[in-house]
Design goal:
Length: 355
């Protein structure tokens, strides 16, 4: 009689426990390849079991909201403290506007602290239990509405907003103060610029200075058919307000034959056929620089608005809305060309209260 000792090598593979488990999982995947894996077990946070840790988190959130309020106050104060033309050196940014830097820094801190405070509050103090919501039709029935309200009240309760008064009050303070930064920004919408658009650097007695040479002009310096760019006496290119002033005071001189001037006022405001008109196009403010000697027309290169300098600089083509303003000129006792007054009307594009 012979004996036989069994081993796992003698057992068919499909009968091994591991193989049966694998086959069972494979069958399950075939039946439902998108089976819900479920949620991991909930682990309590330190703040859930330690009231001192919860108090520390509460104070941290309140501190963030308080810093947000202080940053908003700093944003508003920056408008008063820093002039618009003040520049400071900040490494590694280099030279930068003090006003722009302070506004960006304070507003960024104010918004960041509100967000960081809200996130820290949610992650450390609010309930972190996973809630499963089954899909439902888009329309809401009465039971759903009641459930939503119940969930809302439950969420408000779990957020501890009623219990954590320090967080609640500082959050309301931060949310109430930060919109004030937007109110301050409205300052730039009005009533500025008041009447600044109606006046330029020209006034009675101001000499007409050649922009290229910086020298005052005599009538004989302007020949028939020439175009000379001039600016008012005393306006220096290196001054901090040069660009702002020249944007309104830039003037072109053209000498015409007096008999070619068709407009009576233009002739009266000229000197020996020398006429002075604003270089700022009345469409969108581009510089008018292209001059055609034969027709006495000047052209704006931006949108091709064309003005007739022999007829009061009226618009003969293009989108410009009104003629170029004329500067009344004359000659002083020393024989230099000078302005008799400022422009009689605002220069440049139209604006809503121009009239």
């Amino acid at each position: 009689m012979s004996s036989h000792t069994g081993s796992h090598e003698d057992v068919p593979d499909e009968n091994l426990p591991g193989e049966r488990t694998a086959r069972g999982e494979a069958a399950t995947r075939e039946e439902n390849p998108f089976a819900d894996p479920g949620l991991p077990p909930h682990e309590p946070r330190v703040q859930d079991i330690d009231q001192r840790a919860a108090k520390r988190s509460e104070r941290t959130v309140a501190l963030l909201f308080t810093v947000s309020m202080l940053a908003t106050v700093g944003f508003i104060a920056s408008y008063v403290i820093f002039p618009i033309d003040q520049y400071v050196h900040i490494w590694p940014l280099g030279e930068i506007s003090a006003l722009n830097f302070s506004l960006g820094l304070t507003l960024g801190i104010a918004l960041f602290c509100i967000g960081a405070g809200a996130v820290h509050w949610a992650r450390t103090l609010m309930s972190d239990h996973e809630l499963i919501g089954e899909r439902h039709p888009v329309e809401a029935d009465e039971d759903t509405k009641e459930k939503v309200l119940a969930d809302f009240h439950q969420g408000a309760k779990e957020s501890q907003i009623g219990r954590r008064k320090l967080i609640r009050n500082t959050m309301f303070g931060a949310l109430a103060v930060v919109p004030l930064s937007g109110v301050v920004l409205l300052r730039d919408l009005g009533p500025l610029p008041e009447d600044k658009l109606r006046h330029t650097a020209w006034s009675r007695g101001k000499l007409l200075v050649n922009q290229n040479t910086g020298e005052p002009l005599r009538p004989e310096d302007v020949t028939v058919g020439s175009l000379v760019m001039v600016q008012p006496e005393g306006l220096e290119e290196g001054s901090h307000d040069f660009q702002k002033e020249i944007a309104k005071a830039a003037v072109m001189l053209v000498r015409l034959e007096p008999e070619d001037i068709k407009d009576k006022r233009e002739l009266d405001w000229s000197h020996e056929g020398i006429v002075a008109f604003s270089r700022i196009c009345t469409h969108v403010g581009c510089p008018v620089t292209l001059y055609e000697q034969q027709t006495h027309h000047v052209l704006c290169p931006c949108h091709q608005s064309t003005f007739d300098l022999a007829d009061g600089a009226r618009v003969i083509f293009g989108p410009a809305g009104h003629p170029l303003p004329q500067l009344r000129i004359g000659v002083n006792d020393d024989g230099f060309l000078e302005a008799q007054d400022d422009f009689a009307e605002p220069v440049g594009p139209s604006f809503w209260e121009r009239g």
